[in-house]
Amino acid sequence: MRSTPLILMTKILLLGLGRWGANHLRNLNNLPIELYVAEVGDKQLEPARKLGIPAKCLTTNYKDFIGKVDGVVVVTPAQSHFPLCREFLEAGKDVFVEKPLTLANEESKQLEPARKLNIPAARLTTNYKDFAGKVDCAVIVTPAQTHFSLCKEFLEAGKDVFVEKPLTLANEESKQLAELALCSRMQMEAVLDPTLRYPRDMAVG
Predict the structure, then answer these.
(1) Digitized pLDDT (tens) for each residue of the chain, 205 residues in all
(2) Widest CA span of the chain, in angstroms?
């Protein structure tokens, strides 16, 4: 008898459920990951409960989950970004942080480059096409004039896309991407702008 292969899901911790945290909560909950959520108080965790996040994946002390997760999404007050990013990076975790990265240039410099954080060389490239066929999702934080072509390329390749605003520089280009995302049943979101969200199985708007 052939055994069923064990599929290990990426474990992501979301820190913060404020205005932008709520947006990230909805989007992360739609991805094929194991989601953990931390907030400063039990009451603030209610949005996560309403989405069905298990109690074992909720906490008021984020340190409970540092050793369990693969990465963290930091959506907390800006003054907390530096210590939180440093703590998770030093723990060997991948980090996504809402801007600003820190409140001081010197703090940003102290957050070491990826090559010094033990990220394997095989996961670093100067040509994104090297990874286009290997990843499930692309986070695009490039100059705005490249957004349309990059989003189009990844959507056509069947990848979910998160893009820093503006989505595109022209309304017609944005409409083309929206139609493409809906036709291919992929998810596309303009990060930091909840009005530009094209999730799977939902109409635009």
Answers:
(1) 444 444 567 999 999 999 889 999 999 998 889 999 999 999 999 999 999 999 999 999 999 999 999 999 999 999 999 999 989 988 888 899 998 989 998 888 888 665 566 666 677 788 899 888 889 889 998 889 999 999 999 999 988 888 888 889 999 999 999 888 887 665 565 543 433 343 333 333 2
(2) 59
H or E stretch including 13?
Answer: strand 11-15
Work out the angle at residue 26's Cα, subtended by the Cα atoms of residues 123 and 59, and round it to the nearest 5 degrees.
Answer: 85
Tell me the C-alpha to C-alpha distance, in Å, between residue 1 and each of 17, 57, 166. 46, 34, 53
Nearest-10 crossing angle of helices 171-184, 147-156: 10
> Is the Cα torsion angle 160, 166, 168, 174 positive or negative in sign?
positive
Three-state DSSP state, 65: coil
Measured CA to CA, the distance from residue 84 to residue 107 in angstroms comes to: 12
Evaluate whether the domain defined by 11-114 bears CATH number 3.40.50.720. Answer: yes
The CATH code for residues 122-198 is 3.40.50.720
Q: Let me know: does 202 contact 30? Beta carbons within 8 Å.
A: no
pTM for the full predicted model: 0.59
Give me the residue spans of the domains in the chain: 11-114, 122-198
